[in-house]
Fold these 2 entries.
Entry 1:
Amino acid sequence: MVAVRTGQRQGPTAGEVAAERASGGEVRWPSGFLAAGVSAGLKKNGKLDLALLASRYPARAAGVFTRNRVQAAPVVVTREHLQGGVLRGLVCNSGRANACVGERGIADARAMAEEAAAVLSRFLGEQVPPCQVAVASTGVIGVPLPMERVREGIRRAGADLSPEGFEAAARAIMTTDTRPKVAGVTVALPAGQVNVAGMAKGSGMIHPDMATMLAFILTDARVEGADLTGILRRAVDDTFNMLTVDGDTSTNDMVVLMANGAAGIDPGEDALERAVTAVCLDLARQIARDGEGASRYLEVEVRGAATREDARRAARTVASSSLVKTAVAGADPNWGRILAALGYSGASFDPGRVTVSLGPVEVARGGVEVPFDEERAREALRAAEVRIVVDLGAGPHAARAFGCDLTEEYVRINASYRS
Amino acid sequence: MVAVRTGQRQGPTAGEVAAERASGGEVRWPSGFLAAGVSAGLKKNGKLDLALLASRYPARAAGVFTRNRVQAAPVVVTREHLQGGVLRGLVCNSGRANACVGERGIADARAMAEEAAAVLSRFLGEQVPPCQVAVASTGVIGVPLPMERVREGIRRAGADLSPEGFEAAARAIMTTDTRPKVAGVTVALPAGQVNVAGMAKGSGMIHPDMATMLAFILTDARVEGADLTGILRRAVDDTFNMLTVDGDTSTNDMVVLMANGAAGIDPGEDALERAVTAVCLDLARQIARDGEGASRYLEVEVRGAATREDARRAARTVASSSLVKTAVAGADPNWGRILAALGYSGASFDPGRVTVSLGPVEVARGGVEVPFDEERAREALRAAEVRIVVDLGAGPHAARAFGCDLTEEYVRINASYRS
């Protein structure tokens, strides 16, 4: 939990620092929100698989959705519900994606919203329309939801709603994740504090475009007049979208932001954006760290790009190159693979002007190897958090991508390729 | 060895059949070509690492090269040499890519051509200019070639040149390949026979864009007037390029075609293209079968696409999806992953019109699951050669992509995702 200074805009740095420091501490969930996570019998062994989030007050809301041509039913329904710009709650199941099941999928997603709206109406003591409930699903594609279990689960979640339910909710949205992912930032203002916190699931860093990524960000900030959609879109662009390859997404990806104003304080659009970005960045990094089969977190920073898009593309391409990832797993400073990945990234640059560093060790300059201490370079790749920095020497733009290494059989072949 | 009928153009089918049948038999190398493979000490343990190909007669030649922005020195030099349209030989080393080593790389590639030209001049008893020698390299990027060893290797290869040297040459160009890859087709014509044969290396199906792919195709056909470059480009497009993701290529990829006319027979442009395509297809499939860590060959056919590019894109995307590949490895008929991959392929289609078959088992129609025998579907995925057929229901275009499954740790997590 950390203070984000407000005032003049300082770029992502402030938010970033906040996020780094925030991820260590305990998350303070925003006022006026409640959560529950229950087992509805969608996963085996009584694992939590249904989450319900509720706001005591109407929350202004925005969403960012998958760009996959095949869109899961909950994506269609939630997009529709967000047109009103107000949410009172969110229901999410794991175990089944509710995608590619035909007309029935839409009906089931609507039924989830209706059941949750009924539960929330009883709980909050006022009428909540189904269109004020967001719906999300994650799990196997092509298998319909067992709706009786889902309905029963929603009812039990409604009975469990509490300000202490966020951890259970974060567990209930997991699929192959090995741990729940939550993050929070507190913004200190003269008038008091505003909290922004969120939960996410996703663990498929090897093919992030396919492993559903869900994130729900909550804040008690008052946000009258703020462009919530713009804030969320920009925050997602520099964080969750830098986990993905070329904007490829699963059928179910969704990030939802809800601001219920319970803190009674409007931090201003810039401070809010920094805080939301900080929470998204923290969650994105947690997803990268939890990459399927990963042993190391990998962050790739590209500087000196001619355009912002070039920087983003180059960073993502290097971070998602299997050969770079296996070199990291094998702690092999095979920097040529980085150059080759840059070469097919689509970014514009002169190979003869590229500089590459592995952690603190510069290994190439002007596109060719510089003398470097092999053992130090290996050490930089053996760290739990590996950082590759590239300067393209082509302009002023920079971007970072978040990933992880690639282990095992494929590694056995590729990691020791040089020796 | 198989006859390709000539006459009216029959599309890729004839060539395809020829290739399937050809891959079983022994390859008949075209007349007037010689080859050698030696160990120049670039790889460890005295493995073969330098190949030399020679033609007794000036051969008309064409090449197709990597589209990576970072191009290895031999790519630059060979592209230049092919401007003359005539080759007498080709020299290729493995172990070092001769890429990203600065100005020196170009000088080294030129020196390889010069040394080979000198050797060929002595061997053939006539002056061979260096610009009639193609140069190729594959191996580690960023490490210069040990030129004394390379020169010495070229001289020894020159002394070894023989019509029986192709197998050794095919071995000498291997890197992580587990076996050499050669293929041949004989075209029977009233006037006699024409042979087309080739060798290839490449084994990185998990990230084909990064694992160097080299192929050298030779024919004794007389090809006066034929558009060799067009023939090669079209052949590569439907074969080697369907191994790759979105045209991404390594720094060193190269396919070279040489036609020396030694058979004294001109088969006509169509027959030649069919035969070249058949050889390329056979080699491409061998590369897919030898995919790093692969246990199964995977062929994805997409029909009913609105455009040719849509068909190609969709087929390549499905064949390269890690989640599809792990489902194949785990023999899990999780067809939703196929639909999701189609969805982010960029192809235009209505998800509600898609049909998916795993081998002979139709699993989805109209975008939703049809009742199918789970055990039969699993069996289709357990075959050594797995075939996925998709109909997009959007038009008349079709394409095939060639790949393999994805095994091990990543599989442990993903293959059993449904259970």
Entry 2:
Amino acid sequence: MSQPRQARAIRTREKIIRAAAEVFDESGFAGASMNKIVRRAETTMGAMYFHFASKEEVAQTVMAEQASDMAFPAGEDGLQRMLDITLEVARQLRTNVLLRAGVRLAVEQGSFGMSDAAPYQLWSEMLRTQLVAAERRGELLPGVDIEEFAEIVVGAYTGTQLLSSIATGHADVYERVATLWRYMLPAVAAPEVIAGLDLGVADSARKGASLGS
Amino acid sequence: MSQPRQARAIRTREKIIRAAAEVFDESGFAGASMNKIVRRAETTMGAMYFHFASKEEVAQTVMAEQASDMAFPAGEDGLQRMLDITLEVARQLRTNVLLRAGVRLAVEQGSFGMSDAAPYQLWSEMLRTQLVAAERRGELLPGVDIEEFAEIVVGAYTGTQLLSSIATGHADVYERVATLWRYMLPAVAAPEVIAGLDLGVADSARKGASLGS
């Protein structure tokens, strides 16, 4: 493909993913159709099938790229940044359609016959990065199994946002995630370390870096 | 309705719920149909619509009655019984079709336009009962917010079993729930209390009582 054609194809693919996220967010997987997504993206069925073979493949891409619209809070890697990132994700679940649709599809994927752990691995990697840094900084209790704790947090976080979604349409998701941390941190950090952590709204001046940077 | 007719109607309703659980468990909500459920239950469409107005209503009933097939571990209410019950639920997620289908539908309900918190309330009530007893027995740290902790555990547990389902088809759900508890108990119980708790397989001799009894 020539350079301009390739650039156009990439833009079209992005437009389709964004439109798909909107449609999945409004209608769920069952209520969405390739047709609806094509109309929302203002593109053609030909362009759609050039990029995606099926609605399942579009959904899988929205799941995989759920975080690509997010600006992650900056700061030094460690426990505070781990809290800042997870709280920012909670905040953005209310406003960021790609994130919300990607998370929702990852939770509901069984309903359309999918069983894809990949969307969750992005988040356990992020947590591992922050926990390894926390260990290096002496913020963790001795003997914490970072791999295991990261995996448990991803599951606990996923269910926490799900219950918030069902109970309040994500209105209280930020508070629930902060509460979840209050109950999980004592297993991995000493009281004096926890006392120095901020579970409030992350300072907007610290935003703007990308994941893991 | 006469007594025998009423008894027959109750049996038919139960047969439908069980058949529906099997069909939802195999095919998910989208892949299930009233027809499929009627055939599995070996009943008639007339009997089906006497009891349920729609597939959504059948699904809601399976969610609401997800625990009605379960025998809960007996024992005195408190932290140990809370662990025993939640671990028994994990164990039964592998074998009890009504439980597995009910939990799955509760998680995936957004995909068919439902937003029903009731199936989760059953579990937070169970946890509250055990936590209130634990507090009375002096097993909790001072100042634990029982209501809040119960709600957080239900969310964390829901996500933990979901990730186990996606990653291993529930093969490792028992171990994941035991691990979740190891990371949540330090926030609510003193180390010497936790040391006395058993996160292993519940003694089969202690089974057989019903929820909250």
